[in-house]
Amino acid sequence: MEIKVLGTGCSGCKALFATVQQAIEELNLNATVIKEEDLTKILEYNVMTLPALVVNENVVAKGRLSLNEVKSILLNIKG
Predict the structure, then answer these.
(1) Separation between Cα atoms, residue 13 and residue 7, nearest integer Å
(2) Residue-by-residue DSSP string for 19-74
(3) Bridge-partner residues for 58, per DSSP?
(4) pLDDT digits over 3-54, tens only?
């Protein structure tokens, strides 16, 4: 599973990145987490709200997310 946190480096983006890492650890998932801060690459995902969460190249959430919300998203995708 490849997870990207899209954001320009704001506190909310950094917080989501940390939350995603914690969720992966707690769920014991095999995943790669990438922090994407390049605005040109972020715009390729057609998101106007940051931070955004991308899993396997699909935008799955926008805005701030709690640990439980991230876990729920990742478990639903894992199936």
Answers:
(1) 5
(2) HHHHHHHHHT---EEEEE--HHHHHTTT--SSSEEEETTEEEEES---HHHHHHHH
(3) 55
(4) 999 999 889 999 999 999 999 999 999 999 999 999 999 999 999 899 999 9
Q: Cβ(60)–Cβ(27) under 8 Å?
A: no
Global confidence as pTM: 0.92
User: DSSP class of residue 44?
Assistant: T
How many other C-beta atoms are found inside a 10 Å radius of the C-beta of residue 59?
A: 14
Q: What does the block give as tokens for 43?
A: 């715009």
Q: Give the domain 2-78 fold.
A: Glutaredoxin (3.40.30)
DSSP symbol at 46: T
| 3-state SS, residue 76 | helix
Which residues share a beta bridge with 59? 54
Residue type at 46 in one-letter notation: N
